[in-house]
Amino acid sequence: MSYTTLQIEQQGKVATVWLNRPDLHNALNETLIAEMTEAMGQLNRDETVRVIMLAGRGKSFCAGADLDWMRRAAGYSEQENLADAQKLAAMLKSIYRSAKPVIARIHGAAMAGGTGLAAVCDIAIATDAAKFALTEVRLGLVPATIGPYVADAIGWRQARRYFLSAERISAAMAREIGLVHEVVAEDMLDARVAEVAEELAKGAPGALSDAKQLLAELREGSPWDDALLEHTAGRIASIRAGDEAREGLAAFFEKRAPKWQA
Ligand SMILES: C/C=C/C(=O)SCCNC(=O)CCNC(=O)[C@H](O)C(C)(C)COP(=O)(O)OP(=O)(O)OC[C@H]1O[C@@H](n2cnc3c(N)ncnc32)[C@H](O)[C@@H]1OP(=O)(O)O
Which of 92, 101, 126, 187 has the smallest number of Cβ neighbours within 10 A? Predict the structure, then answer.
């Protein structure tokens, strides 16, 4: 299957899904979200693939949701916004619940939805220049669909800080709070992710899948509650079309500070 916003490469047992919207730092739009969900299904069905890697073409891993798409959301109905948010939630779940281990190869920016993308992967490896942030509240948005995954990765205490402050998280801090597992020099990134992928591919496919399933079950005594994940899409659906998002997104594109109503 060919994709317009992704490129898939396979080397041995490792398939790399390249986010391929480099001019926009691989921002997530409707097409990319649909294609990523489809690609995860395709790679999970492909018995020659044992490990999946997510990576970004160009300067960044992923700049989060496409803000032009978010800006257009103001004109969508609540139902349309809900459907869109559910598709994003489904994409995140398709990665989190992948039966095969997924590694995030992170360079450049991994903002908001990009931070979420790092958090849904089993293993995240970043360069020392990578940067993260949950910028949503500065745009009149909320880290909703990515919320459970990021909070689970960094812990609730850290989540309360970073969800609200939107402050920049350096690679070193991302390592310290558990958002990424390893930080390496830029020129070591490919070698290191290849090494980790090779180690993962030594695991028995059935056992790897069972281990992932077991971890999900152990987390709260049952697999992660689908109702909770669904609820996150409902939370963001109306926010996306609200006044604050309208102002936050206008300010982003006009390259100015947003003016919030009291
Ligand atoms: C549930 C999920 C919600 C979300 O994810 S909300 C999205 C939150 N995302 C962000 O807050 C990231 C916004 N972008 C940035 O902060 C910066 O950009 C970067 C750090 C990623 C890169 O900075 P630099 O290297 O200085 O490049 P540049 O000139 O800012 O960007 C190049 C072009 O890319 C566009 N762009 C960047 N991010 C997005 C995006 N997320 N959606 C749509 N467009 C984006 C810009 O506007 C610009 O375009 P032009 O060259 O026409 O001015």
Answer: 187
